[in-house]
Structure formats: structure tokens, C-alpha cells
Amino acid sequence: MENQDLGKILIIDDNEDLLFAAKMLLKKHAKEVSIEKDPRRIPFLINNNSYDVILLDMNFREDTTSGKEGFHWLKQIKEIDPSAVVILITAFGDVEMAVQALKEGATDFILKPWQNEKLLATLSSAIKLKESYKEVEKLSSRQKQMQSDMKKPYSDIIGQSASMKNIFSIIDKVAQTDANVLILGENGTGKELIARAIHDRSHRNDEIFVGVDMGAITETLFESELFGHKRGAFTDAKDDRAGRFEVADKGTLFLDEIGNLSMPLQSKLLTVLQRREVTRIGTNKAIPVDIRLICATNMHVHEMVMENTFRQDLLYRINTVEIFLPPLRERQDDIPLLANHFLKSYSQKYRKNFEGFKPSAMELLQRYNWPGNIRELQHAIERAIIMAEGDELDSRDFFFLSAKPASEKAPANNTLNLDDMERSTIQRAIDKNGGNISKAAKELGLTRASLYRRLEKYGL
């Protein structure tokens, strides 16, 4: 056992020879060993020091056999420090006394004279228990802090514009209910943040928040992912698996990109939402689920209903309350707040010291159309910070952006100029993918690096 494995130890016994022998043994293995022969000093010691393990004699001079004094002082220690790890020691131990000691809050019980190896092993186990107590306390404190942070008004959502204040008001009203919510808005506007804000302010905030990207789930895996499956139900079903509905039970289920579902999948989803129960693939057993449902999409679902590409009854089911997130170009007052937030965040990440934006840079950011919305702004700030020099960002650090609206960027449809055609195609791919460079590059058949070179070439 390595030096200092046993932390700080306090030994309380009226036998000075025992105290000396124990200290000589344990000081090789502990960070600190304190000894005390007078149990009346226990309250002072516990109140003024922190010990990892306390070794406490059960019998002192006034009562050498019953152990009553030991139980008295054990109770005193636990009242002062409920998480104290106490090992009782006695020369007259028996099974009944050991059981009573454990019921009274002792961690372990050891007879004297002890074997050195036995004492060290007992202390080693006690130290591990103390460390687990500390971890639980740490997690409890962290949870309290998280709950405290959640009480701060929308510290996770940045915005002071009139439209955002209206959204905050809607969240406050809807969060306290179990009403289904549909969040509409372009890619990159922060729909998941709104969903999490609703969950965090609901009576389900102590339960789980489960997010599902419906656009990333294939038709064949839809039922398995959402409703679960039984082992052997299909080729790759090697174990029983709970679906996302089961996992989200008692909590919030967030279905993102719900507008991407095909009509057959919409029908299956509607059935589950109506019945509030799921059946795993390969079984006939219905499992009830209790969830708060929040959905989101960047598609025009009301128009899709008119076109018969989205079920009207499903739309009624998921949008008891509807929240529309405006695009960033309609929230110009929020752009400086968001830009400065990302500036601070990425300056810390990349260990750079930027004081802010020059007027020319902020003017450019507020004129730009932001087809990718907040996500695109975030990426733009990050890229500028990586490449920029000096202590302020200016318009030249955003050379890859154009202040012109997206509608002015596209060349005439009848052009045969190859550069203009390529520029137009790239712009359409970026707009279509909400400013997501990775997705746009994949659709264009280019690498990210190749796409970035073309963006710079065309000033996009």
C-alpha cells in the first residue's frame, strides 16, 4: 500500500500504548494520523478538523465492557458530521454489539488486538466509502447549482428583441402545462434550445430530456429507434432495447425535423401518440408511456397539409401550442449580443484575447442575410477568431461573408458563364442546408476544404 493512501485518520482510545502502536503503523500509509485519549474532546476535534476515517474505541475507563460510551460518542460524531466514516474498536466485541454498531451508523467493527493486515484492509475499504460520500455530495451540489442556474431567466437563450421577449412569455405560460408544442423556424434558429428551455421550466425538469433527429432515422429503423425491439426481432437485434419513447418516460421527448417523416411513418407515430403506449418490435405487449411531447421542423407543415404530404390529424396532435422562431435577419437587435457571446466563448477556447468588434465588422454582421441563422453566425465568429490578428475583429476578418441579401447574390438563370453557374449552385446548396458547410459540401460532392476555397473565391 502506497504512502498516504489512507488520507487523514483520527484515533480515539484511552490506552496510550495502543494509540502509539497504531500511529506508528498507520503513519506509513496515511497522509496524517491524529490521536486522542480523552473522548470529551471529540466535539472540538470534529468541529475543527476534517478526517477521512475515525477509529473509535467502544469502551473507556468508566465503562470497560458494555460499549455504551462508544455508542454515545458515535452518536455525537454522526450528529456533527453525518458523512463521517467511523470504525469502532473493542476487545470485548460480539456479533450483537457489531450489528448494533452498524445500525447506529458505524462503517465497520474491528476487534483488538487486531492483525495489522486486517486493520489496513478495513481502513482501505473505509477510505473508498468516504470518497464515494464526497462524490455524492459533489454531485448533489452540482445539481443544486444547475437548478439554481435554471431559475435565472433564460440565461441559456440570448435575445432582447421584441420577438424573443414574446417567445419567452409563451415559454413561461406553456412550460407549466403538459401541452404538446410545435416549434417552427429555419435551420439554425435555436429550436432545440427553446425545447430544452420548456423542459427545464416544467414540472418534469428532474426527469430526462430525450432529443431525436427524425431526419436522421431511416424508414427501416424508425420503429426500432422510437418504439424499441425484442432480441431476435430482426437480424441486428442482438439484445432487448427500449425505444426513445420508453427512455423518455416521465420526461420530455423532443422530435426534431418531424416534417421529414413519410406518410406511413406519420401514421405510426400518430397511433402511438393517441394511445400513449408503445409496442416493441417482436412483441405484442403494449407499454404505457408518460411523456411531454415537443416537436420542431423547418418545413412549412401547414402548406404540407394542404398538399397532402403531412397528416392534418398529426398536426392537430402535436401543435396544441405553436412557437415560431424568427430568422436572425429579423432579429438584428440581437446580433450584437449573440456576436459578443460567441466572441467571448471562442476567445477562451482558442486562448486569444479579443476586445470586441470594430464598427465596420458589426455593421457587416447586421447587414448580412444569415441564411444559416445563429448557427452560421456562430461558425463565422469562430472562423474569424481563428484567422484574425490584433485585438479587435474588423470587416476584413469576415471576408467570406457578403453584405448583400441572398436574393441579390444569384446570377441570372440564363447565364452560361461557368463561374457564375458554380457560384449560384454553391449558394443554393448553402441556403438549402441552412448554412451547414458539411452538408452543403456533401451534396455538392466536395470536401469541406474544397468548398471553403470556393466560398473565398466567390466571396460567399
Describe this structure in words.
This protein has 460 residues and is an alpha/beta fold. It folds into four domains: 6-136, Rossmann fold (3-Layer(aba) Sandwich); 174-324, Rossmann fold (3-Layer(aba) Sandwich); 328-402, Orthogonal Bundle (Helicase, Ruva Protein, domain 3); 418-458, Orthogonal Bundle (Arc Repressor Mutant, subunit A). The chain has 19 helices and 16 strands. It has helices at residues 16-26, 42-48, 68-80, 95-103, 116-151, 162-175, 191-200, 222-227, 244-247, 263-275, 301-306, 312-318, 335-349, 359-367, 373-387, 406-409, 418-432, 437-444, 448-458, and strands at residues 8-12, 32-36, 53-57, 86-90, 108-111, 181-184, 209-213, 228-229, 241-242, 252-256, 277-279, 286-288, 292-297, 321-324, 356-357, 392-393. The strands form five sheets. It has a five-stranded parallel beta sheet, sandwiched between helices. It has a five-stranded parallel beta sheet with strand order 7-10-13-6-14. Helix 6 crosses helix 7, helix 13 (335-349) crosses helix 15 and helix 17 packs across helix 18. The longest helix has 36 residues, at 116-151. It is elongated and about 105 Å long. The two termini are 64 Å apart. Residues 148-155 and 403-413 have low confidence and may be disordered. The modification 4-aspartylphosphate is found at residue 57. Residues 157-386 form the Sigma-54 factor interaction domain. It holds the Pfam family Sigma54_activat. GO terms for molecular function: ATP binding; sequence-specific DNA binding. Keywords: Activator, ATP-binding, DNA-binding, Nucleotide-binding, Phosphoprotein, Transcription, Transcription regulation.
